[in-house]
Amino acid sequence: MGCFWNNMKDLQFIDLFAGIGGFHLALNSFGARCVFASEKDAHARKTYSHNFDTQYFEFNDDIRKISPDQIPRHDILCAGFPCQPFSQAGLKKGFDDGEDSERGNLFYCILDIIEAKRPKAFILENVRHLIAHDNGKTFAVIENLLKNAGYTVYHQVLKASDYNIPQHRPRVFIVGFRNADKLPPFQFPPKIPLTYTMSDIWQGHCEKKIGFTLRVGGKGSNINDRRNWEFYRVDGEVKRISIDEGKKMMAFPENYHFPVSKTQAMKQLGNSVCVEVVRQVAKTVIDYLNNHQDFFNESSEIVVKRNKGELSEIYALCKVIFEQDIHYGDLNAKLTDDYIRVLKIHTKHSHIDLKKSHMIIYGKNGMQHAYMLSDFITQNELNHILGEIKNGKSTFSIKTLNDKVALLGLQKTKGTSLQKGDIVLSFDEKGQIFSQQNTSIKSFLGHSPTLVNASQATNFIYKIQNIKADDMTKINAVDTRAKIKDRLQKITDLGGVLIFERCENPVYESTLRKVDSRMPEILADALLAFFKKQINHHLISYPNEKIVDLEEKEQIHCRLKDFVKASILGIFPTYEWNGHLTANAILLINETGELVFYHTNKDAVLKDFFYKNTIFDTPSSSRHRFGLVYQENNQFYFKLNLQLRLKK
C-alpha cells in the first residue's frame, strides 16, 4: 500500500496544550509538519520556541482566544490537554474545577476545533485517572462527545516502560478516526521489551531498573522519604537526577535544550508526555491512515459529509445560478419588487460567468468550461436538495450537491476564516454594476443561525460587591433548571450588587468600543437583564421600562443596530477589528428555501430587519465557563456569556 501523502511533509498536525513540544518531536520524527501550536505557560513557550522554528506556524498563547475556524487545516490533531483537574493532584475535580474552572473544561476547546476542522484523526493524552473519574462518568462524557462529533474512538492506558523507557508513567491515550466505524478496529502499538534501564540512564550500576515517574512540578525531598523521586543510588553513591537524566527518561533528544532554570526545566519535563510513547502511538495512527487511504481521502464520496450550514451555502450557490434574479427583502423578510441580477460568482478557485441559458467556469489554471444551466441544475433537483437539507440530521451527505461541488471545483464556498462573506457576487441593479460583493449566507433550514457565536471571548465579567466568602458557596450551590437566573437572584437576596468590570477577552472589548464607546457597558447591562429575565429574548426588548428617557432609549437602539450590523458583516470576537466591514450583503435562506437579499446600499432596511430579529441565546455554561461566582485577589466575580441568533 502506498503512502497517503506524496511527501510526509504533506502530513500536517496541530499541537494543542503543547507544553515543551513532546507531541511535536514525535510527529516531526516522521516528517510531519506542524501548522499550528498553542501553549499558555510563558516558561514552556520559551522552551518550545527555543527548540522549534515558530516562524513557520502560528504559536498561539491562549487557545480560548481563537475561533476554531481560524485554525489551519490539518490531518491530525494532537493534544495533551490539562490533566490537573482529572488527576489526584488536582483533587479529581474533572469538569467542575472549582475557582479555576478553565482547565477541565478546556477539553471543549479541543472538541470545538475537531467539529469545525474535521481532521482525519486525533491523538489525545491525559492521566490514567481520567477513566475512573466520577465512576467513569467524566470519561463517558468525553467519549460520547467525540463519537457524536463523527469519530470512531479508541483508548488505552500506556506506560513508558512498555516502550523501552525506564519509568512507568501510565497515561491514557485517546485516538479517534473520522467516520471510521466500518473500518477494521485500530490497534494500539504492541509492547516492546525493556532493555534500556536506569543503569543505562546513569551510565553506571543503578539499584533500580525502572525509575520513579518524574513528578509534575515536583520538589526535592530527603533520600529516606519513600515518596522521593529525585535521588538514586548509583555505584553505591547517592545521586540527584539532573536535566540530562530527565531528558533520557522522557525520551527527549540530546540536542533538546532548556533556556530556563533547572527548576523550571525539571518541572517542564515532569509536565511533558514521554516522546517515545507518543512516537509509537503516532506511528500506528499514521499507518492506519495509510492502510485505509482511499477511505480517508477527502475526495472519497463516503466522507463528503457536511452540516446544514455548509449544505445551505452550496444550495444557495446552486439556486443563485438557477434563478440569477434575487429579490430584496423587507422588514419582515418578505420579497419586494426590487431585485439584483447576478452576473458573476467568485470562489476561491474559480469565477463563474452567468448567462441566461448557460454559464462559463474559469479556473485559476486558465481552463474554462461551459455548461447549459438546464444541465447543471433543475427546479426538481433544487426541490430535492431542499428537502434533504430540511430532513437531514447533524452532518450528512447529499449526492446531488456533491456532484455540483465537484463540477464547480469547490471544497467550500467561503474564502477565508477572516472574511464574513460566504460567497462573492458581482451583480447589476437597475443598470448599476456592483463588483465582487462579499455576501454572508444565513439559513433558516436548520437551527436559528448565529450572529455572535458563544466562546470564552464573548464572556462578560461582573464584579460582585457586598458578599462574603461563605456567600459564594451558597450561590454556587444553586442547581435549579434556571440556575443562572436563580444564582443571580441569590446574589441579590444576599445583598450583592453586580457591576460590569470588563470583557474577558480584551480584544473583543476593544472591538466593541470601536462600534461605540459605550457598547461593552450597554451589552453587559442587556445581558444581565436577559439572564435575570427582566427582558425577553429579543435584543430590541432592551432597555426595559426602568429607562424612562425616551431619547436615551432611542440612542441605545441606534447603537445596538450598528453593533448587530458590524457583528454580521465585520466583527470576529477573537481578532482586533479595524473598523471595516469584510462583507456588505446578506443572502437569507428562509424556511421555504427562497433567497432573500439585503445589502448595505439599503442600509436602513438591513439594520432594522436584523436588529428586530436578533435574539439572545443561552449557551452551555460548563462549555463556555460562566455562571459561577469565583474569587480573585479577595474580590468576587461572575461571568455571563453573549450568544446571539437570528429569530426564525
From TrEMBL:
Biological processes per GO annotation: DNA restriction-modification system; methylation
Catalytic activity entry: a 2'-deoxycytidine in DNA + S-adenosyl-L-methionine = a 5-methyl-2'-deoxycytidine in DNA + S-adenosyl-L-homocysteine + H(+)
Record keyword S-adenosyl-L-methionine present: yes
CDD domains listed in its UniProt record: Cyt_C5_DNA_methylase
Active site (catalytic residues): 83
The enzyme's E.C. designation: 2.1.1.37
Family stated for the protein in its record: Belongs to the class I-like SAM-binding methyltransferase superfamily. C5-methyltransferase family.
Protein name stated in the entry: Cytosine-specific methyltransferase
